[in-house]
């Protein structure tokens, strides 16, 4: 993958590389999977945060990922990450993914989000203080202000998601993937990459969406990605995706990632998020079968999906503004 620029000292990092055939969502298409884009986002954001903190840090939260336009194999990709706000031990990093024809080098924006990292001490166990980021330009002050405004909204989203019950009483379509975290998934701290976990989330949600529709499906949005604990290499991983709500061509899907020692032990929640997929055919979105909530739990989670959509509107202030997606053909990622 490309290289980081000298902007690391100023709180920014840029990666540049070509989208490879192995990055596509499926062998029948050319569009890069949303999960792969999230891996790129996490790597660039980590490089930015680690350079600023001068030490190890972990992904704590990824919010409001808008896949605005697909990236195709062979295109030149640029992932820019820069600090917009720091707390005592936290670093808020805005990431912009752009792409375009390699022949011209003219790039346009394809995805945006904010990633929050927590700096850890030398032993990698406890949060440690980071130096304060001081915005200088008018644009930097605007971004910092917008990030502060979103803190309350993000907390409301986390509470809303944590308060839900997912049990056998639900009748919604779901997909479950189970596997072991492999040595190739390891990050610089000996655990599983946050970006890898986000790719697993995208894959499980994609399976759920495609099984429901019988069509190719692509991510247009992911949000409220909350990391509760790391996943050790070699652990059993279970990624469960469940349909919550359908729009005309969109599907709102909740994903939970759990892990356990394969030699015994209870599965523990590590990551939770909501993602939105659309069904696509011949370059455009197509209507999806409408799901009717049957049980009381189904109905509650259907309302929960709509509540998250409303809360998301508050998270899209200032520089992170992004469209509400319900299947726009140009929104497939």
How would you describe the shape?
globular
β-strand percent reads: 25-35%
Distance between the termini: 20 Å
Output the structural class. Answer: alpha+beta
**DSSP E strands, number:** 11
How are helices and strands ordered from N to C? EHEEEEHEHEEEEEH
Low-pLDDT runs: 2-8, 317-333
Average pLDDT, rounded to a whole number, is 87
Helix amount:
25-40%
| Quaternary | single chain
**Number of alpha- plus pi-helical segments:** 4
Largest sheet: 11 strands, antiparallel
> How big is the Rg?
19 Å
Can you describe this structure?
The chain is of the alpha+beta class and 333 residues long. It has helices spanning 34-53, 138-162, 194-213, 296-315; strands at 12-18, 57-67, 76-86, 90-100, 108-119, 174-180, 216-227, 236-246, 250-260, 268-281, 284-285. It is built from 4 helices and 11 strands, in the order E-H-E-E-E-E-H-E-H-E-E-E-E-E-H. Strands 1, 2, 3, 4, 5, 6, 7, 8, 9, 10 and 11 form an 11-stranded antiparallel sheet that branches. A hairpin with a 7-residue loop joins strand 4 and strand 5 (108-119). Helix 1 packs antiparallel against helix 3 and helix 2 runs antiparallel to helix 4 (296-315).
